[in-house]
Amino acid sequence: MKYLEKIQGLLPLGYLYLIILGLLKESILFYQLGINILKYSSITDILISPIADMASSPILIIIIISVVLFFFIFQVIIIKNREKNWSKKLLGSYKINPESDKKELQKTLIPIFFLLVSIELLALFVGLGIGEGSIIKKRIETQNLKYNYTITSESNEPVDIYMIDINSTYYFYVTKGDKHIKIAPVGKINDLEIISRK
């Protein structure tokens, strides 16, 4: 029960870390496009950014769960095989006494486990921000965009656009034949239609 209570106590810190990672990813992505995303984000956008990222990409959820499971299983294998030479060498390299009992080893390895998971998640989110930002920037420069929405603004003129992102107050998009990113308040767009993907 104490172990579960400790995990429950760490959950808010874990969510705060995910929020920071979501902000970092968005900032890196939009920085490459010349936009300071924090100026266009509300508190709600910041709080839901990690959940929105994970919900929009099931692969990201699978990767995060896989990373956590991998490090957890690795920790269990090390503890079970603490008497073997390879485990003793590995634990010795981290200055951990392999002769400790199971509970003592678990207490020692849990902070290392969380540190490894947090570093892996940091690398994942930063990599996603750099990768997505550079891909979008390159596609805008070469005009190699798949226009995925049609918007109708106050002028009632429908326009095909490539939607970069949407938050609670702004649309970020590129219109067909243009290399400049437009930022439109949600209230200025009358209609948003998904272009059929055949």
What does this structure look like?
The chain is an alpha+beta fold and 198 residues long. It has two domains: 2-138, no CATH class; 149-194, SH3 type barrels (Roll), CATH 2.30.30. It has five helices and five strands. It has helices spanning 2-31, 43-56, 58-80, 85-93, 102-142; strands at 149-153, 158-166, 170-175, 182-185, 189-194. A five-stranded antiparallel beta sheet has the order 4-3-2-1-5, with no helix packed on it. The longest helix is centred in the middle third of the chain and has 41 residues, at 102-142. It is elongated, with a radius of gyration of 23 Å. The N and C termini lie far apart (53 Å). The relative contact order is 0.12. The model has no long low-confidence stretch (mean pLDDT 83).
SSE blueprint:
Layout (H helix, E strand, L loop, with lengths): L1 H30 L11 H14 L1 H23 L4 H9 L8 H41 L6 E5 L4 E9 L3 E6 L6 E4 L3 E6 L4
Antiparallel strand pairs: 1-2, 1-5, 2-3, 3-4
